[in-house]
Structure formats: structure tokens, C-alpha cells
Amino acid sequence: MTRPDPADPFGTAALREGILAAWSSSPTRLREDAATEADHVRAGYRDRVLTELAQNAADAAARAGVPGELRVWFADGRLHVANIGEPLDEGGVHALTALRSSNKTGAGSTVGRFGVGFTAVLSVSDDIEVRSRTGSLHFSAERTRAVLAERNLPEPESGVPALRLVWPTETPPATGSDTEVVLTLRPGVDPIALLDAFRSEAHDILLELPGLHTLVVADDEFTRHRRELDSGLREVRIGDRTWWEFTGVSARWLVPVVGGRVDPIRSDVLRAPTRSDEELSLPAIVVADVAMQPDRRRVLPGAHVENVARGYARFVAALPAEQRLDLVPLPGFARSEVDGRIREAILDELAAGAWLPAADGSADLVPDRAVALPGLTDELADVLDEVVPGLVIPELCGPRHASALSAVGVHRLGLARLAELLSGHERDPKWWNRLYEALTPLVVVDAVAAEELASLPVPLSDGRTVTGPRTAVLATQLQDLGPVSMPWVRLVHPDAAHPLLARLGAGTVTVEDLLADPALVAAVEDTDPDDLHQEGDLPAGELADVVLRLVPLVSPAAVPRELGALLLPDTHGDLVPADELLLPGAPLAEVLVEDAPFGTVDPSVVDRYGADALRAIGVGWGFTVLRAELPTGPDHDLPDEHLWWERLDDDPEVLVAVRDLDLVDDRRWSRALTLLAAEPATAEAIADPAGYTAWYLRTRASLDGRPLGHYRFADDTLFEGLLDPCTHPDASAFRSALAGTRIDDIELAQTLLHRLADDNRSPGPAAIVAAHDALAAAFSSGGLDPESVTLPNGVRSLSGVVVDAADALVPDRPWFAAAIPHDRLVTGGRGTAHALADVLDIAVASAVVDAEPVEHGRSSTWEREPAAVLAGIVAGVPPPRGVLALHDRLVVRCSGALTGEVEVPWWVDAAGTVHSTPIGLAAALTALATPDVRTEP
């Protein structure tokens, strides 16, 4: 075997001669070589200087079994690219000089199949050196052009083929390198821009070429660090940038990671292994083993690019659960035919694989068996665990992922469909409450959601489950009531009640509304007395139980009186309406008649529900009070109510009345009045003088055998001496039921008439006048019928003496009052003379007495008399016009029922002339100022 020449270890001289001989024998071959090389530079390997040199460096490192390292720098007008690894060998030299061959065909080759990529250096240089530990080479367009001239070979129009002829050189590679490529840059090539372009490619080259570990561009070093993750991914880090990498059957996949979360790319190209011109729209970088055309720009026709997708589902499954949908290719136009085929293959791979994380934490789901509920939360997923199988985690159910879910065929479950799925499910009311709480955020952010949930099931308090919140009502006061059945209303179960239901259309009711519901009243009225609870411990069945549990939640005044018909057991075991029962030991029982229609409620009912609840529905303790808003007539089952109603001018706004007063034993009214005064509700009722209760007590109650209305309050002196004071200790509480200023009933009128004629009583003048005034008003108004009373023989005069009615006179004209003796004078208030005379059947003075002044007096007028003017000022009335007859002493002569002469202070004669003494002027002026004084006092 011939030993190589140390000055030309690779036999470049023989290579040159062989090529030149071929060119000389066939000028066409020269032109073809020149054109092919020019095509590679202009098309296939444009802008790939660093890529192609990096591939060679990665191959050399792989063959040497060392981490690849590539250094690039610019010095002395030349670009230096040095690497470590297997040095240049003879096969490599042949590959460099041959446009159609490559030494990258053996098992030691790691990337690519063709060695023609070295022609990329010609895009920046016509003078190239390849320096290696085993020998160095020199390629030069200038030297090639000189050789062609020496051999009389024409220079092709496309230029000389600079990489066909090679010469040996003795320059070794840079220290620390195994191979160095030195490029003398062509004029016009900017080295700074070139190095900047290399820096921008550094990350891609290190990702694409696993054999290359470090790339140094000038002073910038880029080193790839790889770390295996527990998930099956590898973390790839270059500087401050990070990717997650997964190796599939036919490709490696990389996705950028920012802050621990994948950052899908928007567009890229197929890398096989370096960048091609096949544009992709995939969310991750793909470095694939795909058959490429010689220039590695395009995929070979017929290449099975679909194989690239194999294992993609495992790649996605290795990602954190909440990030997996980020790597699903979204619908859109493919950027190339290859892109469309790979995308379709990936979606098929994803559709068939189990990689969607399940909300219940079980194994990953296959898309066609998965369900996504938009707006799903952890709380909602927990509630729906057993109801909706196959739910994916909430993080993947948001609107951001809708397109990705659709792309892989995941069923999206709407709220309307969810409501349908929930129908027929039997769950504890608390489960429903949890569901409503979990659904609330969805309704708050989306108004349409409320309509979609219109058929959401709702559990009721009676155990039923109905469809749609709009058919049910909420009572939020019942949370602490416990299980309760309300068959008369579609009430949401207290344990299920939630504000969401109100937002979805459920009505809201208070406990007052529930108790006042006409359906409850009807149910109470329809209760069957034979409908006892099977265990015997619920009064009149469940209806009574729920009512008695609701009543404590409201004020007693809010409990409808109709609930008094609720049947409860008495001490004999019979069912009796509540308002016909008394509590054990009720003080009311002490004051009722012996045959009062009241029983005693079973003590066990009191123990179970409490006395307050029973009293609120009408079970008696003391007297009960009826309250009715806007009553319209006497239809409240009160004794003699119609008689009281007839006295009213207008209907009252509120009727407040004590019930069952007609059942009080007449001998026990004193104790009954004590009970009425002791309870605030009844005390309020009896305090209204115009109310029913005060009227009933005044006319029906009695003390010591006398009607209560025939007593006066101790401090009330109006009828003192005629009516006795009430000495009951609680008289102040029922003062309105005692005698007042008016006479309301015929019995009181009869009593006053008799006591006015009773010599054993000593009323004062004021009491006598007040009594006469009240009697006149009572009968003249039409309130009392004069024919209903029996008149005594005597009447009470102003002096207090009882006088025979035939001798009594009523001064119907004011000047007669001074002429009639006080022991015959009977009077009331001003304006009552004729009415009083009619009531007492006695005469008015003007009808039976004639009287005229004995003397004419001094004739004058009111305006001319100082004393008259001064009297007007004192009396507060202007002096009248007309004649005034003045007397020092005025005497009138009387005839008829009154005879003799009487001295009077003033008088009016038959002609209408006023006669007066100086002291009578003021009285005359005051009396004359009253209208119709001549005929009526």
C-alpha cells in the first residue's frame, strides 16, 4: 500500500487531475459542475452557512462520542468556525469535492444523508480553508480560475466551481479544536451582521442537533442543558430560555416554557433535523426523521409525514394537567400540505388516546368519553362527581379552551342539558344546596345561564322534587327548623334553600306569608278529626305539627285567627279546635261560666311545642285578642258586635277586640278585669274608649251587680254624687270602660234620672248641670229613645233640692235664670233648655211665666253709655245697636207659674228692649251675643 505524502495526506493532487481530466474531455461536465454549485448556493443552501457547518460539527462529535462544541469568531478579515470531534478523513475530503456524493451514509452518521450542504459557505466566501488534525485543505475560486486558464478551459458563465478543486495546506486548526473552517469573506459581506445572524440561529441549532452541546459566537456562549423530569419529559435550557422536550417514535417535540407554563408557538417550519421550508402551524417545535429532498428544503414526494404524529398524545399527557389543551392544534387553514397532513394525524392521535385529565382524579380520559362543562369549578366538579361521569378538570373547561376541546371531539355539556341530566336524581337536600352554591358563580357572570337552568330540579320540604325554581318558593327563616313538610305550598326544603334559586325565579316568602296562605287556612278547615298520626304523638297529623313549629318564628299578632281551627287533642283525647282549648292552669278558666265551651289541651302537646306557640294559634291562657285590618262589617264572631258596629260613623282601619267576653261569669268580673289589665295585648284593647272591648265592658260587665259603665273613675268628678267611683285596683287600666262625659246606653240614662231624683244623694251644682247636659245631648241626638226610660216624679234643681217635676222650670231665655228660685230652677248647659225640658217632661219658663219691668228706666243707647262700652270691653263683645234702658234697681213683676216682683240684674221686655242695671250690663252683653237669644238661651 502506498504511504500518503505528508505534504498532501489526502492525495488532493490526484483528485485535481482526475477532475481536470474530466473537464478537459467534456467541457459540458465543467459547465454542469459550475451550474450545480451555483444552484446550491442560490437556492438549496442559501442562508445556511452556520446550519451546515453545525451539522458537520455535530456529526464529528457523534462519531467521536463526545459532546459537540462549535466556536465561531471573526479575525483578520476571515470567519473562523472550529469544532471538536472526529477529524477530517479521506472520505470527508472526497465528499467535500464531490457535488453528488456524501460520506454521511454509515451508521456513525447522526443527521442528514447528503454532504453537498458544505456549498453553503460559498454564499459568503470564494476562499475556504478546512483545517484538521489529520490534514488541511484549501478551496479557492481564484486558484481554480487560474488552473482553467492554464488548461485553456473556458470559464463557465455561472462562474468557476470553487469547491471542485482542492489543494493541501499546512495550517493546523485552532488550538483546542479538531477541525476548523476558515472563510475569507467576500467583499460586501458584513461580518458583524453575519455574526448577529449566527447568534439568532444559535438556539434553534442547539435544539435541532442533539450532538452539539455548546455553540460560541464571538464572545457569546450558548450551552444546552438537559434534565429528565418525573413526567417523562426532558427540560431543555439554553441560557434563560427553557423548553420541554418529548421524544416520540419518529420525532422530537419541544415547546417553550415560560414561568412553568408552556408557551405554544404560533408558527414554525418542519425541522428534519434542521429548518426546512415546510411551514407548520403546530403549537410545538417538531424535529422529525422525514425523507427530504437533497437540499433539505422540502419533503420528498410520498414521504409518510403522518408518522411524525405517533406518540404525540403521550407527549400531551406528560404535560401538567391544566396545560394539556394548549398543545392541541386549533382549527384554521393549514400553512402547507405537510402542515395539514401532520395536523390531521395529530388530531387523530389525540382523539384516540387517553390524555384528558379527569376532574375526579381518576385515569386520563379519551376525548370521545370526556365531558367539558363550561365554567366548571372544583366545587361543582366535586358535587357532580357521581352524576356526570367523564368530567374533565375545571381548568380545561373555560372558554379559552373551547376550540381545542371541539377539535378533539370532547362533548361540551351546557347548563340546560345539565339540568335535564339532574332530573330524576334522588339526593339529600344538602347535596342540592351544595350544587346551587357551586352553580352560583356561573349565573353571576352569565345572565343567559339563568335561563338555561330554568328546569333545574328543586327539592321541597314535603319530600317531593319539582322541576324548575320558578314553581317553588323560598323561606329563608327555616334553616334551623329541621325537617318539615308543608303540603299546602311548594316550599324549598330548608336544607336546600339557596339565594341562587331566587335568582332563577323562585319566589320568596316569609313565615308570615306561609301562615297566612289561604291554602293553609283551607287545609286547616278540611282537617279530618280522625286523621291522627300513626304513632299518636302528632296532634291532628303533620299539619298541626308544622304549624306549631312555624308559629314561634313570627310575632303572635301575625298569626291568622283562622288557625284557631287547627285541631289539637284535649285531656280526653278528643280533637278540638285550638281556639276552644285552654292551657293547663289557665287563669281564664277561673272566670268563665261553668258551661263554657272550652276544654284543656293535652299537657304533652304543651311539652312538645311550648305554651307560647299554642297561645299564638288561639289556645287560651288569658283572654285572646282579635286583630283585623280594614274590617268592613260585624263578621268577627264577637258577642253583640253588630250593636257596637251600628254606633260607628265609619269603618275602623283596624279592629282590635278581646274575644269571649260573653263567657265571663257575672260573679267573676272583678277577677276578669284583673286578667284583662295584666296582659299588654288585652290592656291595649280595653284602653280604647271608642273600641269594641271598652264598649262591651261598659255595657255588659258588672261589679257588685252594677254595670261597669255606671261607675266613674275616682278622679273623674263630672258625675260626682250621682255615680259611685270604681274602687277596683286596676280601674286605671279599664278607665275607658267606665262612665265618661257621654251617655251611651239607656240603662245609664235611667240610672242618672233616678239618682237625680234620689234624696239620699247629694250631687253638687256642677254635677247636676253635667248630668242634665249629658241627658239632653243623648236624647236630642237620636241616640236614645225617650220612650225607653221611666221618669221619676222628682227632678233635681240647681240648689240640689229634689223638686216635683210640675213645679220645676227650665230657663229657656237667659234673663229668666235670675227670676226663677234656685230650688225650682232645672238647667243644663247652654243651648239644652228645650231638649232637657222634653227629656224631664217639665215646662220652660217662657211658656208659663209672664214678666215685665215695673219701671221704664232711663232711655239711652249702648254706644252712649260709658258703663255699657266698658262692659263690652270686659265681656269681649261689641255693644249692640238699639235702645238701652238703664235702671239703678231693676224689678220685674211676674205672673203665671211664677208670681210676685223679683229684683233682677237685667231683662228683655216684650218689645225687645234691654233693661239693665250697671252690674248687669256685662251679663246682658254676653247673653245677647248668642244667636237667637230671644228664643233660646
Short description:
This protein is an alpha+beta fold.
Overview of this protein structure:
- This protein has 937 residues and is of the alpha+beta class.
- Helices cover 30% and strands 18% of the residues.
- The protein contains 29 helices and 42 strands.
- Strands 1, 2, 3, 4, 5, 6, 7, 8, 9, 10, 11, 12 and 15 form a 13-stranded mixed beta sheet that branches. A 4-stranded mixed beta sheet has the order 37-38-42-41, covered by helices on one side. It has a 3-stranded antiparallel beta sheet with strand order 36-39-40.
- A hairpin with a 2-residue loop joins strand 7 (212-217) and strand 8 (220-228).
- Helix 25 packs across helix 26 (833-840) and helix 28 packs across helix 29.
Question: What's the mean pLDDT score?
Answer: 90
Give the tally of β-strands.
Answer: 42
- Mass-distribution shape: elongated
Tell me the radius of gyration.
61 Å
Strand content: 15-25%
Q: Helix proportion of residues, in percent? A: 25-40%
Summarize the SSE layout with pairings.
Blueprint: H1 12-25, H2 27-44, H3 49-64, E1 68-75, E2 78-83, H4 90-97, E3 125-132, E4 136-140, H5 141-150, E5 167-169, E6 179-185, H6 191-208, E7 212-217, E8 220-228, E9 234-238, E10 241-247, E11 251-258, E12 261-262, E13 268-271, E14 275-280, E15 285-288, H7 312-317, H8 337-352, E16 371-372, H9 378-383, H10 402-407, E17 411-412, H11 415-422, H12 429-445, H13 447-452, E18 457-459, E19 465-467, E20 473-474, H14 499-503, E21 507-508, H15 511-516, H16 518-525, H17 541-550, E22 567-569, E23 575-577, E24 581-582, E25 599-600, H18 603-609, H19 611-616, E26 625-629, H20 641-646, E27 654-658, H21 669-678, H22 680-686, H23 692-700, E28 702-703, E29 706-707, E30 711-712, E31 724-725, H24 746-756, H25 765-780, E32 794-796, E33 802-804, E34 809-810, H26 833-840, E35 843-844, H27 845-848, E36 849-853, E37 858-861, H28 866-875, E38 883-886, E39 891-896, E40 900-903, E41 906-908, E42 914-916, H29 921-928
Parallel strand pairs: 1-7, 16-17, 20-21, 24-25, 30-31, 34-35, 38-42
Antiparallel strand pairs: 1-2, 2-6, 3-4, 3-6, 4-5, 7-8, 8-9, 9-10, 10-11, 11-12, 11-15, 13-14, 18-19, 22-23, 26-27, 28-29, 32-33, 36-39, 37-38, 39-40, 41-42
